[in-house]
Write a structure and sequence with these properties.
Blueprint lengths: L3 H19 L13 E2 L2 E2 H6 L11 H14 L11 H14 L2 H15 L11 H14 L1 H26 L4 H11 L13
Antiparallel strand pairs: 1-2
Helix pairs in contact: 4-5, 4-7, 5-6, 5-7, 6-7, 7-8
Organism: Sphingomonas mucosissima
Protein name: Putative peptidoglycan domain protein
C-alpha cells in the first residue's frame, strides 16, 4: 500500500502528465470542447467559478479542477493506492471524454474479467474498488492491470470510431486521439501494482 506522500506524488504526476499532453490555449471552432487551455474547457472553468480569460487561467486553478473533477469526483482517488497505472488510464480518459464512459468501461471490465456483478453506472465507489481488489487477489495485480489497460483502451478506441462515424467533422481529431490517448499508459507500470 502506497503512503500518503507517495500518493500525493502520483497525483501530481498524473495531473502534470495530462497538462503536458493537453498543451496550451486552443479555440478550434470544430472542437466540441470549444475554448480550452491546458485541457480545461471554458465551460468547465466557468462552472468552477473561474471568470478570467482562458488564455491566462492560473495553473493552480487548472490543477484544482483536475484533482476535484477528474480524479476525486469520479471516485478514482482510492484506486491510486491499489493500481496507479489503471488510475492513470481512467484519469486521462476522463479528461479526454468526460467521467461517465470511463467509469462504466471500468465496471464492465471488472465484470467481464473477474465475474463480478457490479452495477454499471459509471460511479466508481467502494463496491467497484472492492471488486477490483478482490479480482487482483484472484488474478494477480500485474496481469489484471495489463488486462484492464487493454480493455479500457479498446473501449476508448471503439468510442472514438463511433464518434467519428456519428460526426464526420471530428475525423480531423481522430489520429491525435488515437496516437496520444490509446496505449499511452506504459504496461511496464503494471509491475508496480504487485
Amino acid at each position: 500500500m502506497a503512503s500518503k506522500r507517495a500518493i500525493a506524488g502520483i497525483v501530481l504526476a498524473l495531473i502534470s502528465g495530462v497538462i503536458a499532453l493537453e498543451g496550451g490555449y486552443v479555440n478550434d471552432p470544430l472542437d466540441p470542447g470549444g475554448e480550452t487551455n491546458k485541457g480545461i474547457t471554458k465551460r468547465v472553468a466557468v462552472a468552477k467559478g473561474y471568470t478570467g480569460p482562458m488564455r491566462t487561467i492560473p495553473h493552480d486553478v487548472v490543477v484544482s479542477i483536475y484533482y476535484d473533477d477528474y480524479l476525486v469526483a469520479p471516485g478514482y482517488e482510492p484506486l491510486i493506492a491499489i493500481d496507479a497505472a489503471v488510475t492513470e488510464e481512467l484519469f486521462d480518459t476522463t479528461v479526454n471524454m468526460g467521467p461517465a464512459r470511463p467509469g462504466r468501461w471500468f465496471q464492465q471490465s471488472i465484470n467481464a474479467q473477474c465475474g463480478a456483478r457490479l452495477a454499471v453506472d459509471g460511479r466508481v465507489g467502494p463496491a467497484t474498488i472492492a471488486a477490483y481488489s478482490a479480482c487482483q487477489r484472484r488474478v494477480g495485480a500485474a496481469p489484471l492491470c495489463v488486462a484492464m489497460l487493454d480493455r479500457l483502451d479498446g473501449a476508448q478506441r471503439a468510442e472514438y470510431d463511433r464518434l467519428v462515424r456519428a460526426r464526420p467533422t471530428l475525423k480531423r481529431f481522430h489520429r491525435g486521439w488515437a496516437t496520444h490517448r490509446i496505449g499511452n499508459v506504459d504496461r511496464a507500470k503494471c509491475r508496480a501494482a504487485t
